[in-house]
Write a structure and sequence with these properties.
The complex is a heterodimer of chains A (about 160) and B (about 160). Chain A is of the alpha+beta class and about 160 residues long. Chain A has one domain: Yope Regulator, Chain: A (2-Layer Sandwich). Chain A contains 4 helices and 8 strands. In chain A, the strands form 2 sheets. A 6-stranded antiparallel β-sheet of chain A has the order 2-3-4-5-7-6. Chain A is elongated and about 50 Å long. Chain B has one domain: Yope Regulator, Chain: A, CATH 3.30.1460. Helix content of chain B is about 40%, strand content about 35%. A 6-stranded antiparallel β-sheet of chain B has the order 2-3-4-5-7-6. The chains are: A alpha+beta (about 160), B alpha+beta (about 160). The interface between A and B is large, with 42 and 44 residues.
């Protein structure tokens, strides 16, 4: 009987630890430290942070591509009047200035069907905007966030190379 | 002694069951996962299967809008995929009208494209690598259906 209880205790500890690790590894929202960690893990460098409103990070990849991550659906902790915000959505974006508005439209038409993982839009003023929107509701793994950033910057750099 | 063995076996089974299966986590998706998520999002599955080495599940939203969940980066037997492209196509009167709609649509959670043959294509791409919860997949589908439906009805501007 003692042996049975001991075995149960070990299993309970193991299951408890597994639950704890899962809680740490999955994000159902994000704060500035979470995103900084993911951006750095993707191989990029954080060049600016701003938490005066919704969290915002500006970054640069090893190849020099500049991009930003800004929070969407952000709020302070439940019951708190002030404090750091956490967000349910993240908007990754970068933009390229082309020689004309027509060139931007042509780029949207060319690369749009080619790259399903990003959204391409004519942002006006000859700007080609590339973006990817991430939803955190109910949980994504931290490493999934890193892969999402890598995919976004990878596609953006491919298009950048073709400009 | 029999009770002890039974408890030990149960614990052993619990510990060897994949964590993903226990906690609703997905590192990739199979046909059953796709169908379950679409149904949980309130839509109806109309067809499913494999084509060109990829999984697909087609569905219809409650308002009648048809859409497709198409697998990318698929492998294994049975087939499982690391990516899912949710898409819907809306036929416009002309190529120029498609381009005009692409230009005016402003919804960050989806992409809008000229799919050719006067089709305005709307999509959302989901990456499964390293894990998302089943609930997160459901929310992604719900968001896509909501925005795509708005665009279908002339909105999204």
């Amino acid at each position: 009987m003692l042996r049975t209880l001991a075995a149960s205790g070990v299993a309970a500890v193991a299951l408890s630890l597994a639950g704890g690790a899962s809680a740490q590894s999955y994000l159902s929202d994000w704060g500035i430290a979470d995103m900084r960690q993911a951006v750095v893990a993707s191989g990029a460098t954080v060049t600016r942070e701003d938490v005066s409103s919704d969290p915002y990070i500006a970054a640069k990849t090893a190849n020099g591509l500049k991009f930003t991550v800004s929070g969407r659906v952000c709020d302070v902790a439940t019951g708190a009047a002030t404090g750091p915000k956490r967000c349910k959505g993240a908007f990754l974006q970068t933009s390229f200035t082309l020689e004309s508005d027509a060139a931007v439209d042509a780029g949207v038409k060319k690369w749009g069907p080619e790259y399903a993982a990003v959204s391409l839009t004519n942002a006006g003023d000859k700007g080609l905007l590339l973006s990817r929107y991430l939803i955190f509701d109910k949980g994504i793994h931290r490493e999934n966030l890193v892969v999402n950033i890598e995919v976004f910057t990878g596609v953006a750099e491919k298009i950048w190379d073709e400009l | 002694m029999i009770k002890t063995l039974a408890i030990a076996a149960a614990l052993s089974a619990a510990l060897v069951t994949p964590a993903a299966a226990q906690s609703g986590l997905l590192n990739d998706w199979g046909i059953a996962d796709g169908k379950a998520a679409i149904t949980a999002a309130g839509a109806t599955v109309t067809d499913s299967g494999t084509t060109n080495g990829a999984l697909y599940v087609s569905g219809k939203a409650t308002d009648g809008m048809k859409f497709l969940a198409y697998g990318t980066v698929c492998s294994g037997t049975p087939l499982r995929c690391k990516g899912m492209n949710l898409s819907a196509g809306f036929t416009q009167d002309s190529d120029a009208q498609v381009n005009a709609r692409v230009k005016e649509i402003d919804r960050m959670a989806v992409g809008a494209r000229n799919g050719g043959e006067n089709s305005l294509d709307v999509n959302r791409y989901i990456i499964f690598d390293n894990g998302i919860t089943k609930g997160n997949l459901q929310t992604n589908i719900e968001v896509f259906l909501s925005i795509a439906n708005d665009i279908w009805n002339g909105g999204g501007k």
